[in-house]
Fold this protein.
Amino acid sequence: MPPRAQGKGAKRATDDEQLPFETILEQLEEVVETLEEGDAPLEEALTTFERGVRLARLGGARLDEAERRIDVLLSDQDPERTRPLEQEPSDDE
């Protein structure tokens, strides 16, 4: 099977990977609004939907990575890295 040509879609997917999480959310909201309007021709709507799926997966992957990082920070694997804050005694104790 011949290799697929790297068109606008492939470049956009690569560019999307560099987007901050907040920008991914904003663009995903724009995709949803565009699709909800229902005015786009079928092919344009499919392209927009594909972009939305790509952004949703990318955003999900970013959230998964953040969760993994938090798990590592909160784990007991490195007690020197994270430990509970000591509470100062209050005046009424």
